[in-house]
Amino acid sequence: MLIDINAKNIFIREIDAELKPRYRSQLDFWGFIWDQERNYYWMDTRNDKLFQKIINYFDTNNIQYSLSKSSRLLIEEIHGKKIKFEDLINLVKKYQDGNYKKEEYKTHLKFIYENIERRLKDHQIKASFHLNLIGNGANFSVPGSGKTTVVLTAFEKLRQLGKVNILFVVGPPSCFGPWKEEYEAVFGRRPRSIILAGGNKLIRKSEYFQNKDIYDLYLTTFQTLLNDQDEVRKFLRSKKISAYLVIDEAHYIKKIDGNWAKAILNIGEFAKFRCILTGTPIPNSYSDLYNMFDFLWPHNEIISNEDKLRIQIEEDQSNIESASRILEPIVGPFFYRVRKSELGLMPQIFHEPYLIQMNHNERILYDAVENKIRNYSKEDYLKNIEMVLRLQKGRMVRLRQCLSYPKLLATAIDDYEENLFEHKSDLRSIISKYDSLERPEKLNYLIKLINNFQGKKEKVVVWSQFIGTIGLIEKSLFDEGYLCKKIIGDTPIERVSLVEAETREQIVKEFVSETDQLQILIANPAACGESISLHKNCSNAVYYDLSFNGAQYLQSLDRIHRVGGSENKEAHYHFLQYDQTIEYRILNSLKAKARKMYGIVENDYNIYSLDMIDDQDEIQGYEELFLLDEKHI
């Protein structure tokens, strides 16, 4: 057989009539087309990775073949790139071992001193040097360590070398404001930026092909990229564009065969340089890393299929350390990680919870709901498991609503239709008239705390899990004469067309300002727990209520404890807690999760449960509170 290529095709000519069916099936699987008249297989696209795979497959199975001149030249080219790539890996390994050319590092320091307005921390300088060495790399440093600053520094060096001319960032909407603000803080100049997300689809897509001057900073979301990937591919392939492509909060693309991941992989090869950022690289399994490294080096197989299989076997057998030993030497050179303990921050102060006695109607509703749930849980064995899990999750939310704002019991919960108040007209009446009967005692206590912070002229962020509760707190503080603002899931994200809308970024900027009057921010962790920094002028957080979601809790803690402000001041955390309720158990559960997570994230890349979209926390909480109790009666 003869393996031949041209600019657009791969051919396998002079097919042996005795070629075994299973080998023919493999060629069919790869997408080759059989031309019986000409006696060859062909593929209508040239794929160099597939070409190499064919060679390896034939060699492994002892299939005799020869190479055309063009094929031999390609083999030599691929071999040359492989040697160059191996040399790069060895260079980075030496740097990680402390064996590097000191003059090159001094040159990097000189570049930073002359071109970067912000004074970088030592770990940020080292991380930016690593990123410039590896070219396409990852930063897995903990939240609050300054990953954005590192990337901007590496980008600027490449820009001045003429290797890139734009920064293209894909991430959650909450990262847009921080990228623009950090750009200005790092370089001392505002970026010419554009947000390519949401809005009118036709207008947005036309922006990729406008003939005006290009922007410094392009920002888009994972969902918009999914819709616009064809336009983005053409944009990145344009002769006038040399892009540094950054995936922020890259744990969102961890799902193998996920649509967002496919879109990212589809555009990655057209960027000049690539970078991924996340403080939570491996939430559930080592497979969470595969998409990230496939994106970083699309033409080089970082983690081979064989290694992936070996890792999977070890994980399936719970041999996590063995899986780690396989993975470590493979991916170690490609990422930089700073641990929380290396940031030099002042301590986090967790005050003892403020124990509060429920008001009369709060106690009636809470006791009724808890007793009802305990009785229901004894009957759950009669239902199918899927229904039971939905009920457990919904009941846990209902119980937490009692601890936050009883009127929430009248609201609907997705996938939960259980009527806890059937034949209880007196309880339904309390819920419907609640606002006229009393104010939650927690709210009264919160106002006292706010008075205390205001007296000391200290800013505070108040966390609540429920949008209805946030609305109640906001109205009550306004009635008390306080200026406050909220960030919830439906707070609009900044876009040029939303001129009159108050955006999340504007609220945060106003809150962290030293001179502004905004002293109180109310937020829920789901909307404000990621990519947002509140630490510059705020060191106090009050937790009005809690959920069992350890990831969101940990993220919220880090909002006021970060590099660039927390080196010289402690962060203080205050918890409002109703006495003789399950709240102390929720807090204890979160503290245990936090201790475990902090212990694990101090390592390089062990598995830890920081999945931001996991919905199992409520079910686990339900089991802890009710089912385990029943077993110990």
Can you characterise this structure?
The chain is of the alpha/beta class. The protein has three domains: 2-78, no CATH class; 101-338, Tandem AAA-ATPase domain (Rossmann fold, 3-Layer(aba) Sandwich); 348-354 and 438-631, Rossmann fold, CATH 3.40.50. The chain is built from 24 helices and 19 strands. A seven-stranded parallel beta sheet has the order 8-9-7-10-11-6-12, with helices on both faces. Strands 13, 14, 15, 16, 17, 18 and 19 form a seven-stranded parallel beta sheet that branches. Helix 5 (122-134) crosses helix 6. The protein is globular. Mean pLDDT is 86; it is low at 495-502, 605-615 and 629-633.
Summarize the structure.
It contains 24 helices and 19 strands.
The CATH class designation of the largest domain is Alpha Beta
Number of helices: 24
The CA-CA distance between the termini, in Å, is 75 Å
CATH homology-level superfamily of the largest domain:
Tandem AAA-ATPase domain
What class do helices, strands and sheet pairing give? Answer: alpha/beta
Largest sheet: 7 strands, parallel
Calculate Rg over CA atoms.
28 Å
User: Spans of 5+ residues with little confidence (pLDDT < 50)?
Assistant: 495-502, 605-615, 629-633
Trace the largest sheet across and list its strands.
Answer: 8-9-7-10-11-6-12
User: Could you give the count of β-strands?
Assistant: 19
Percent strand equals 5-15%
Shape: globular
Tell me roughly what share of residues is in helical segments.
40-55%
- Average pLDDT over all residues: 86
Output the CATH topology of the largest domain: Rossmann fold
* CATH A-level architecture of the largest domain: 3-Layer(aba) Sandwich
Work out the count of structural domains: 3
